[in-house]
Amino acid sequence: MAGHLARRMPIPLILATCLLATVVSAADLRPPHRTPPLWSTTARGRKDRPGSGTPKTPGAVVRTQWNTGEIWLRRTIELAVPLPPRAALRLHHDEDAQVYLTGDLVLSRSGYTTEYESEEIDVRTLRPGRNVLAIHCRQTIGGRYIDAGIDAILPDTK
């Protein structure tokens, strides 16, 4: 809204399951979201964020070790209604990353960050109920890290 500040807050997730793999095809990131046999499954709650990487990567909070050249993550989330009028993707990546929401590429970044960055996404990529957040990250040298989340962008009430 013009003239109003916005505030961001995480969208409450009803269900969060994280799948990860270090060898998959690009087709595994797109619908119909069958789980390939080489993918690992880990349950994740909001207090146990699915940051994957190597220790001592700047700004990283590593929950899952990742020390190969590439990683693919897929997280199923259930969103309650009403959905927010605006949404943002929060991403911390070291190195190149592509982010998909239910099969649609919503963000692609090269290089790396040392903290979370947020970018508004088209809220029409979200839908009430089941959504799939899929991420591919590639690393060529040094530390590695990947983590993402979805935030609601709400008007400032002041």
Describe the protein in words.
This protein has about 160 residues and is mainly β. The protein has one domain (about 5-155): Jelly Rolls. The chain has strands spanning about 5-10, 15-20, 40-45, 50-55, 65, 70-80, 85-95, 95-100, 105-110, 115-120, 130-140, 145-155. It is globular. Residues about 10-15, about 30-40 and about 40-50 have low confidence and may be disordered.
Concise account of the structure shown:
This protein has 158 residues and is mainly beta. It has a single domain, classed as Jelly Rolls, CATH 2.60.120.260.
Percent in strands: over 45%
Mean pLDDT: 76
Quickly give the CATH architecture: Sandwich
Q: What is the CATH topology descriptor?
A: Jelly Rolls
Q: Write down the domain tally.
A: 1
CATH superfamily: Galactose-binding domain-like
Helix content bin: under 10%
Which sheet architecture does the biggest sheet show? Answer: 6 strands, mixed
The run of helices and strands is EEEEEEEEEEEE
CA-based shape: globular
Individual helix count: 0
Look at the helices and sheets and give the structural class.
mainly beta
SSE layout:
Layout: E1 6-10, E2 16-21, E3 40-43, E4 52-53, E5 64-65, E6 70-79, E7 86-94, E8 96-101, E9 104-109, E10 117-121, E11 129-138, E12 145-155
Parallel strand pairs: 4-5
Antiparallel strand pairs: 1-12, 2-3, 2-6, 4-12, 6-11, 7-10, 7-12, 8-9, 8-11
